[in-house]
Amino acid sequence: MSLYRCLIVALSGGLLAVTGLAGIAQAQDLALRQCAVPRELVLDEPRLPLLAKRFQDHQPVTIVVIGGASTAGSAAGDEGHSYPRRLEEALRRGHPGATITVINQGGTQRQTAEEMVARFPRDVFANNPDLVIWETGTVDAVRGIDIEEFTEALGAGIDAVRQHKAELMLVDAQYNPETSSIINFSPYLDALHRAADLDGIYVFRRYDMMRYWSDAGSFDFVARSRARQVALAGEIYRCLGERMADAVNYAAR
């Protein structure tokens, strides 16, 4: 091969490499914009001082996420695409060298807050977590559980976590424009946020974030095909995990 042809091949290869990198950068930029939310949806007053100290002292951190099917990642096909897994990946990127373990205790069964509290001794406290992230409220709203019962279950769960010297973050209901048009989530969202306010607990505002993405057109929440639903769930879980990492870092700063 002549020197001229060698140069052409080399330059062509370099151009393809640069074009490929540019494509990757554009995809990453699109993903960042797709997952973006207003700052006020992440910033909250409650802090996680014990977790902050563990990060500061470079001590191992164990986080247990307990919830239902959306925590388990069922809609995305497997636990590897769940938001707790994305949370772990994002936290490890943000704290290089730190030992961070996120244990996913999502369930395949749809459980109320009261039913989840019954799982705490086995699924949460047995892992000696530094932080418990509790996703709840969706099933209670769907089943029409009495608000007082829901509030009492929240209180029992909060007290149990504090007795075990762990910190807590609550995650409110998930949003879908179709289900939200027929189910009144407002009383359950209000009860959860009120309980958190009374006890100084950070709430990850999943409902408002997903509604923002829906209104902004970031995601088509009413995708019909099964394959698209699975892909959509994976995309949303990725965004939730990354924003949850922002929330943890903010509260533990």
Report what the structure shows.
- By secondary structure, the chain is of the alpha/beta class.
- The chain has two domains: 35 residues; 212 residues, SGNH hydrolase (Rossmann fold, 3-Layer(aba) Sandwich), CATH 3.40.50.1110.
- It has a five-stranded parallel sheet with strand order 2-1-3-4-5, sandwiched between helices.
- It is built from twelve helices and five strands.
- The longest helix has 33 residues.
- The N terminus is likely disordered.
Topology diagram in text:
Elements: H1 3-35, H2 49-56, E1 61-67, H3 69-72, H4 83-94, E2 100-106, H5 113-117, H6 120-124, E3 131-135, H7 138-143, H8 147-163, E4 167-171, H9 177-180, H10 186-199, E5 202-204, H11 206-216, H12 226-251
Parallel strand pairs: 1-2, 1-3, 3-4, 4-5
How many angstroms does the end-to-end distance come to? 60 Å
Instruction: Give the overall average pLDDT.
Output: 87
Estimated radius of gyration: 21 Å
The H-level CATH homologous superfamily of the largest domain, spelled out, is: SGNH hydrolase
Q: Give the strand content.
A: 5-15%
Short descriptors:
253 residues, Rossmann fold, 12 helices, disordered N terminus, five-stranded parallel beta sheet
